[in-house]
Amino acid sequence: MILMEADMLFRKTTWFWKSGLAAISFALMFSTSGCSDAPSEEYTVSETVIDVQAIQEESEEDADDIISICIELYKKSEEENTLADLETIRGIVNRLGENGYPAVDSKNQINMTQSKQVVEFCEMVDAKEEAEITIIEVSYLAGFVKYDLQTKDGSIDVVRSYYKYENGNIQREVTGSYQAEYWNYTEEGYLVFSGVWFPEELYILTLSGAEENTVLRVKPLDKTCRELTRKYLAPISFEQNNMFIVDWSEDDFGELNFYDMYDILYQKENEGYIPYAADDNIGVSAVYRIPKEEFENVIMTYFNINSETLQSKTVYYSEDMTYEYKARGFEEVEYPEYPYSEVTGFTKNRNGTITLTANVVFPHSGISKVYAHEVVVRPLEDGGVQYVSNRIIPSEDNYEETWYTPRLTAEKWEELYGGK
Questions:
Q1: 205 band by pLDDT with thresholds 50, 70 and 90
Q2: I need a labelling partner for 23 at 20 to 30 A (CA). Which of 145, 236, 331, 372 fits?
Q3: What is the pTM of this model?
Q4: Angle 86-98/63-79 helices, nearest 10 degrees?
């Protein structure tokens, strides 16, 4: 989202540069914490004077080399219409690594190259020694972010530059600088840092900066764990459903919301959006009745649940054998930033199921572990899967699931839409 906003701001403010506004200087107070497994309670405050012109020159020093390394891969993938494919991104990340650069993808789905350099840099931060490093974050939007990091006396200065590929060329779209307010190499193997950065274009328009959290997986993850994540967890994700945030099992489905699951699983089964859409008038809620066979076929493909149990968890009309369905309305929308689960371990059980242990990572909030959970899946002979259970692993360090908005209760729905 930050990249797209920056891209838009850049295009809107090009004329400023033609007017000669090439450099801006301003003073900013920041606090810095150490590169440890937990945030330090002691903060140092320093004053940083940022010269945008100097930032541009510094961040461009090795940009040409980086561009020359990956430009042909971008051109080839554009011809093949595979710019956003995982294997394309993997190829770019690996090519950068072969040329000595620490690189990772923006979704943390590919092991970081030259990760040892990053670990050593973190050790230098802890030791309050002087060091610098460049880390490349390859985007799935045909471009990359270049982080130029410098540390001295425990403080970390960050120069962030975004480069976009378009029509056979890679151009720098936006650049900015800040001193890290928070810095941590976590137990989960993530480098997390944040601060208020000042893109040239945003500062010109608003005289203010943009808060940014950066979460980069440094520690490599087992290949099989990554495959299990992509196969079983990523297709469900965390958008508009509570499947991975509540405890449930085949013996007791608890608070698992089957209407949300229907929304997600219908699209998987039919490769298209669900036809039961919300009303165009936000003051009116559309109510549908879905035939029993249609609703149950979707749910029962992925859950071992009988009709009686499913009906008890939904609104079912026996007179015409239909399930009531209310599309999510205006009050049930969510902020479009979600965490993701990544499998960190697994056990193959004697009954043919697999127990997946996974961490929930929330880059938008700068959290490398919201909580850990166990998901049991049952692979099917036809290549499909049934979800057997989910269990949140208790911990006093677990964070609240702030991204999720539940569907309206029957009482609240009646209060808002009753009679309309």
A1: low
A2: 145
A3: 0.83
A4: 150
